[in-house]
Design brief:
The protein contains 24 helices and 37 strands. An 8-stranded parallel barrel has the order 18-19-22-25-26-27-28-29. A 6-stranded antiparallel β-sheet has the order 30-31-32-37-34-35. The longest helix has 21 residues. The protein is elongated and about 110 Å long.
Length: 915
Amino acid sequence: MTPRPDSRPLPDASPRPVRTSAQDEGAASAAPSGPVAPEGAAEAAKPARAAKSTANAGKTPAKKAPAKTAAKKTAKAAAKKTAKTAKTAAAKKTSAGKAAAKKSPAKKSPAKTAAAKRAPAGRGPAEDAGRAAARIPAASPEPIAPEQTEPLKDHAANWPGARPPAPRRSGDAPSAHTVRPAAPLDPGERQRLLHGTHHDPHAVLGAHRTQGGVLFRALRPYARAVAVLVGGMRAELHDDGDGLFSGLLPLAEEPAVPPYRLLVRYGEKPGADEIETEDPYRFLPAIGELDLHLIGEGRHEELWRALGARPMVHAGVAGTRFTVWAPNALGVRVAGDFNYWDGTAFPMRSLGGSGVWELFLPGVKPGALYKFDITRPDGSHTLRADPMARRTEVPPATASVVEESEYVWQDGEWMARRAGRVPHQEPLSVYEVHLPSWRPGLTYRELAEQLPAYVKDLGFTHVELMPVAEHPFGGSWGYQVTGFYAPTARMGTPDDFRYLVDRLHQEGIGVLMDWVPAHFPKDDWALARFDGTALYEHSDPARAEHPDWGTLEFNFGRTEVRNFLVANAVYWCEEFHIDGLRVDAVASMLYLDYSREPGQWTPNPHGGRENLEAVSFLQEMNATVYRRCPGVITAAEESTAWDGVTRATHHTGPGGFGGLGFGFKWNMGWMHDSLEYMVKEPVHRKYHHNEMTFSMVYAYSENYILPISHDEVVHGKRSLVSKMPGDWWQQRANHRAYLGFMWSHPGKQLLFMGQEFAQGAEWSEAHGPDWWLLDPAYSAAGDHQGVRDLVRDLNHVYTGTPALWERDTDPAGFAWIEGAAADDNVFAFLRFAADGTPLVAVSNFSPVVRHDYRLGVPEEVPAWREVLNTDAARYGGSGVGNPEPLKTDSVPAHGRPASIAPTLPPLATVWLVPA
């Protein structure tokens, strides 16, 4: 990584290669020009008050402190006495020091009182123990230096203008204290530390009580000297080589190690380029036993709070806790822009058998870039992005970013209403959006100023966002995810994305998003063989490889992997207020033989082709989301006839399975059948009439959404209007009539962007919708504007007419009037609201006007009026219709005692309601 402009290369440091993001990630960034100090390059300036407080302990002012004067006099007197007398005096002095230490808690220093007030409540036992240890004073031959009110960090502040603190001069430090050499580090321990394979570096590094005092050991590559600041004195550690420094300090026999800091020198001369810093290896674990227990059982529903990088105050010190699940790694280290991507000095500890590695790094702030340097079982190293990262660099850069949200939500009213909603009995009209290309170049916040207003004007109740989780290749549209917990950084920060969701909610628009738990890409910096083994993917290569997409399938049978995905579903709904998840590629998850030939798959224990592990995972995910997030919906993109996709998980179906528990299922069958009918010339449609009526055979077997999605307008499938036969007028007329049929058919509806104004070209993520078609300067702009006006009216009439949505899942809410008029290309049916109020929907998919077309209707309605006609002149149609109310006649038709005789416009859909 290129050194920051405010960093300073250190002269003549021992040569050691510095790993860069360019070498580890393939990014085009330069390595530092010379050896550099890992922590000295970009430290924030020291607070003047804290610096003064620390420095005063070692200065010799004009008027000497009484304590120091007394100490010197005592020393002179002791020098004149015999060895026995000196030993007696020393013993008395030690006793006096211990007595003072016992009395000192009675009066707390202002700094300690302030620190206690700043410490947040509710810490775990680990933090309490750490704070208790920090309060125990240590007896020493020098007065204890005043505690600093704010800790000084040795990590980059990660924003422009941050400067490292002024180096401590040797004359400013407390007087040096003689340190005895420590026992040599075991060669095996030394090798494991330096090669990143030590499972418990805290047992070797830091400070530890031992016979004769406290043993201090630090690992600081590139440093020329390391000193310990403890109890008002400075003790120089011995250089053990390879960046290791150690020493035995004869401190008083107290049960806890006294608080201390490190003074690390990178310059040649004493006082040159010295950095005072906290030692990461003096802290107890910052993650609780309950977290580890739940992770091990795969039941941590708030996993993002336990794993990843989390800024926090631990034992009174601000920093970031890093945790990662890598159970088969020999060792894990933290590398980032705060240590020039060399994690040698920051090995993590393994927390028992949980597979979790942890390290608290003081001073690392939100905005810092990081990855995990993992030592695989074969001893090789791999630099990996954090699977739990809540923010990432902008692709193609791949580092994770320490993130802490500061967003204040303003959608309380929406969230309160959401919890009480019953989505199946409410209007649901969805506008599907690919955010990066809807208006290319806009940020989340810029989109928030345009998208909500546009969607609200058109009357859609919801937007559905194609995947927003981070993905390296834009051409995947977000369906090959590497950062499951991070909104893509292409358009801004996570808080910027929150702002977009918030603004949509404030305009009364729900937010659904595509969620992709079926598979993930093979990028060697992401999830694939994360710790050197098949961790997130299945260990059986035949089960791991997805045969269609060149990706890896999740191992749904592993509890930790299921936990990772279930918690991820909850995360989006709780942290980003997402109102629903459309789960992608469900069919590929449910079947072991999906896209596989005989011999390429192994049956389940019952001899079937069902993936029982995936079934269990989907049931757990749906049950958890619906329990924790009332009002949220889940929808499955499932293209087969799997029984019970939207059935409750505790209700067993004919196949012996409980339901999958989804709220909705995309009706892929309706989409394919109806489009197959529409692409035919009208003269041929009578031979395919059943393709429009077949959907009613199974319409109430699941809770359906009718989708015209992005998948239907790409890769040579043509846009919706371009699928239609005939000339330009007929294509638009067919397009409008089809939308009218879709909005009146039982089920909710979804339309992909660009189809609302009859875009003629296929969608491309490179440039998005062809907005220029609506430019008044374009000669045919009125044609496209007319289709958009129809979509607006469809939505507004739809949301104001309960008969079109209130009984979508109730067979009593629908009745055929005419479903067999194949020669006429006519379909007519009734929809009913919960109170019985009817609506008549009639579609004429032939290019001829049909006058006085007799339709049987409920006799209790005396007259009917036209509320929507897709052939209206303002939409670009011919203007044929029924401007006057239609009186109900006592003429039997279609098995009913009464009927009406409307005029059916050509290639049009008409809606009639009681006058």
